[in-house]
Specification:
The protein is of the alpha/beta class and 585 residues long. It has four domains: 159 residues, Resolvase, N-terminal catalytic domain (Rossmann fold, 3-Layer(aba) Sandwich), CATH 3.40.50; 124 residues, Alpha-Beta Complex (Hect, E3 ligase catalytic domain fold), CATH 3.90.1750.20; 139 residues, no CATH class; 54 residues. It is 41% helix and 16% strand. The protein contains 18 helices and 19 strands. Strands 2-1-3-4-5 form a five-stranded mixed beta sheet, with helices on both faces. It starts with 8 loop residues before the first helix and ends in a 5-residue tail after the last strand.
Length: 585
C-alpha cells in the first residue's frame, strides 16, 4: 500500500528524510518568556528605574514577535562579576530550568552587558540549551543560535566589553576620588576615625546634588575621644606596646570605639580595647589633619582556585604604598602633629626590623608554623566563643584558649578557666567514626532529614530579615526628612536627625552586604550534596593529615568545646558547587 502525498510533495519528502527546513525569522513567534535583569548597588543606581528601563527594552524587543513576559528575575546589589550561581535571582532562574511546568520556554534580557561578564555566557548557555530554553539578547538582534559561530563570537566580545566597561568605571571613579582628596582634601565617606565626628560642611560642590539637598560632610574633632588618641600616641612613644596600652585603657574604664559610637559600629562587640584597635589608631595618618585615601583596597580573589568558573570574592587588603594619596594641605583639624605620628611610625618600624620576640610586626602576615594542625580554625571555646589556637605540648598537638588574652572587664572573665586545653589525638577517631556513620548509605535518608530540619530552624533568616527591616526604616526616615525640607522646614534644624538616619542606614546596609540572604536547598539538592561528597567513611581510615584536613573542610566541620562538661559539639554543613546547606546535625 502506497502512502498518500498530502499537500506539498517536497514538505512530505523532507519530513520522511528528516531534512531540516529553513525557518522564516519574520514568522518566528516567541511566546511566554522569563525576563532577567540586574543593577549593581542601591547606592549608585535606583533599582526601580533600572528595572523599568530594562523591562521596557526587553518588551520592545520581543513583543513584536508575540513574546510576553510571564516571569521576572531581577538581582539588586549584585556585581556583574559574580557568577550566576551566586546571584540570588539568577540562581533561582537556573533552578527553574529543571521544572517542566515553569510556564516559559525562553529568557530575554534588557541589556547583555548587565547580565554577563567575561566568559560567563559560555558557561551557562549550554545549560539553557540542554533544557530547550532559548536566549533572546538585544545586542544580537534576536535569538542566540548555539550553532552560529558569529553569535558565539559576538557574545564573547560582549562579555569582554562588559568586563572592560566595569574596569573603566572603577578606574574613573578612583581617579576622581584621588583628585578630590589631593586637591580638596575631601572626606570620602565611611565611618569617621575614632576621635572625629562628621559634621555638615555646607552645600555639596556638585551643583546638581546641591539642588537635590545633598550636603558636604567634613571631619570635626570629638574632644573626649581625641584626648584618648593623644594619650595612645604618648604611651606608645614612652615604650608601652599595643596590648599594654589596651590593658591600661580597659582598667581605667575608657570606652572603646564601638562603645563610644555604637550607632556607627553595630557590627562590632562592645568588648573593650584590643591590641589591634590601638594598632589601627597608631597607623592611621589622618590624625595628622591631612586627608589620606586608598590605604586599603578591595582585591578580587578566586573563590576556589581549582574551579575558576566559581568566580571571585572581594577581600579588603592593605594597598600598595604607590597607590595611596594625601591631600596637599590640611583637610581637617589635627589630633597629633606630623612629627609625633612620624616618630611613632619609626619606632614601630624599628621594632619590626629588630626581630624582638615580644614586638608586634608592623606588616601583616600569615603566621608560619611547621606543624599541621588538622582542626585549625574549626574549634571554638564554649565559654568565650573564640577560636582555640593550636599549640604543641610535650610533642603533642593541642588546642588552647587562655583567659589572660581576654579583655579586662569582659563578662566571661570570671567564669573562664585559666587555660582550656584540648588534645587533638582524642578527637580524630570519634569524629571520623561519627562522620562515617553520618554519610553511610544506610543512614543517608536520616541524615538528609536532619539537615532539612536544621535548615528550616536556622536563625540566619531572622537576622537577615531584621537587618533588612532596619535598612527599610532608616530609608523611610530619610524620605520623611527630605519631604519635610521640600515642605519648607529649615534644613539646619534636621541636620542631626538626617545624620543619625544616614548612620543607621549605613550600619544596616553594611550588615546586609556582609550577610547575604540565607538560601536553603530543597530535599533533592541536599541529596545531591551528599552524593557529591560520596561515602567518606572509607576515606577517613589511614588518611594523611593534610587529606583529612581537606575532608573536614569539604564537609564544613565545626566544633565547640564545653570544658565544664568535657563535651565537644560537632556540626557539619555539607555543600555542593556554590550552594550550601544551612544548618547542621
Amino acid at each position: 500500500m502506497t502512502a498518500e502525498i498530502i499537500g506539498d510533495e517536497w514538505a512530505t519528502l523532507d519530513e520522511l528524510l528528516g531534512v531540516e527546513t529553513v525557518v522564516d525569522m519574520d514568522a518566528e513567534r516567541v511566546g511566554p518568556v522569563a525576563l532577567y535583569g540586574r543593577c549593581s548597588t542601591e547606592d549608585n543606581q535606583d533599582p526601580e528605574t533600572s528595572r523599568a528601563w530594562q523591562e521596557g527594552n526587553a518588551a520592545k524587543f520581543i513583543e513584536p514577535l508575540g513574546g510576553q513576559v510571564t516571569a521576572r528575575y531581577f538581582d539588586i546589589g549584585q556585581s556583574r562579576s559574580v557568577p550566576w550561581e551566586r546571584r540570588r535571582e539568577a540562581s533561582a532562574l537556573l533552578a527553574a530550568l529543571k521544572n517542566p511546568n515553569r510556564g516559559w520556554n525562553a529568557v530575554v534580557v534588557g541589556e547583555g552587558t548587565r547580565c554577563w561578564f567575561g566568559n560567563q555566557f559560555s558557561l551557562i548557555a549550554p545549560r539553557f540549551a540542554a533544557h530547550g530554553v532559548e536566549l533572546w539578547v538585544p545586542e544580537l538582534g534576536g535569538r542566540f543560535d548555539p550553532r552560529n559561530p558569529s553569535h558565539k563570537m559576538l557574545m564573547s566580545v560582549l562579555g569582554g566589553m562588559s568586563e572592560s566597561e566595569r574596569q573603566h568605571v572603577q578606574a574613573r571613579v578612583r581617579a576622581a576620588m584621588d583628585a578630590q582628596v589631593v586637591n580638596e582634601g575631601r572626606h570620602q565617606g565611611g565611618r569617621a576615625p575614632y576621635g572625629y565626628v562628621t559634621v555638615d560642611g555646607g552645600p555639596h560642590p556638585n551643583p546638581s546634588k546641591a539642588a537635590e539637598g545633598h550636603r558636604l560632610r567634613v571631619l570635626a574633632i570629638d574632644e573626649p575621644a581625641a584626648e584618648v588618641v593623644r594619650r595612645i600616641f604618648a604611651e606608645y612613644l614612652d615604650g608601652n606596646g599595643d596590648r599594654a596600652i589596651a590593658r591600661i585603657l580597659n582598667l581605667e574604664g575608657t570606652p572603646c570605639p564601638s562603645a563610644r559610637r555604637p550607632d556607627q559600629n553595630r557590627h562590632r562587640q562592645q568588648n573593650g580595647w584590643q591590641g589591634n584597635t590601638v594598632r589601627a589608631i597608631l597607623d592611621n595618618p589622618r590624625y595628622t589633619g591631612y586627608a589620606v585615601f586608598g590605604r586599603f583596597t578591595r582585591h578580587e580573589t578566586l573563590l576556589d582556585p581549582d574551579d575558576v568558573a566559581a568566580g571571585y570574592v572581594t577581600r579588603l587588603r592593605r594597598a600598595d604604598a604607590t597607590t595611596v594619596v594625601r591631600s596637599r594641605r590640611p583637610a581637617h583639624p589635627a589630633i597629633v602633629s606630623v612629627e609625633t605620628f612620624t616618630q611613632a611610625q619609626l619606632l614601630r618600624r624599628s621594632k619590626a626590623a629588630g626581630g624582638l620576640a615580644t614586638a608586634r610586626k608592623a606588616e601583616r602576615g600569615t603566621p608560619r608554623t611547621t606543624r599541621l594542625y588538622i582542626l585549625r580554625g574549626l574549634i571554638r571555646c564554649g565559654v568565650c566563643q573564640r577560636k582555640m589556637q593550636g599549640a604543641t605540648i610535650r610533642s603533642g598537638a593541642y588546642y588552647r584558649c587562655s583567659a589572660r588574652t581576654l579583655t579586662p572587664g569582659s563578662q566571661v572573665v570570671d567564669r573562664h578557666p585559666r587555660t582550656v586545653n584540648l588534645r587533638e589525638k582524642m578527637l580524630l577517631d570519634p569524629i571520623n567514626a561519627w562522620l562515617g556513620r553520618l554519610f553511610a548509605p544506610e543512614n543517608r535518608d536520616e541524615t538528609v532529614a536532619a539537615l532539612e530540619a536544621s535548615a528550616s530552624q536556622s536563625t540566619d533568616r531572622a537576622s537577615y530579615e531584621a537587618a533588612k527591616q532596619r535598612l527599610k526604616d532608616a530609608e523611610a526616615k530619610l524620605k520623611r526628612h527630605q519631604a519635610a525640607i521640600e515642605a519648607g522646614v529649615d534644613p539646619a534644624a534636621l541636620v542631626d536627625a538626617i545624620n543619625d538616619a544616614q548612620a543607621d542606614r549605613a550600619a544596616a546596609l553594611a550588615t546586609v552586604d556582609s550577610n547575604p540572604e540565607p538560601k536553603g536547598l530543597s530535599r533533592a539538592e541536599i541529596y545531591a550534596a551528599i552524593d557529591y561528597l560520596g561515602e567518606i567513611g572509607p576515606q577517613l581510615k589511614n588518611t594523611k593529615p593534610a587529606t583529612l584536613a581537606e575532608i573536614y573542610k569539604k564537609v564544613r566541620l565545626e566544633l565547640k568545646y564545653e570544658p565544664g562538661e568535657s563535651l565537644v559539639h560537632c556540626t557539619v554543613r555539607p555543600c555542593v558547587a556554590n550552594a550550601g546547606v544551612g544548618g547542621g546535625t
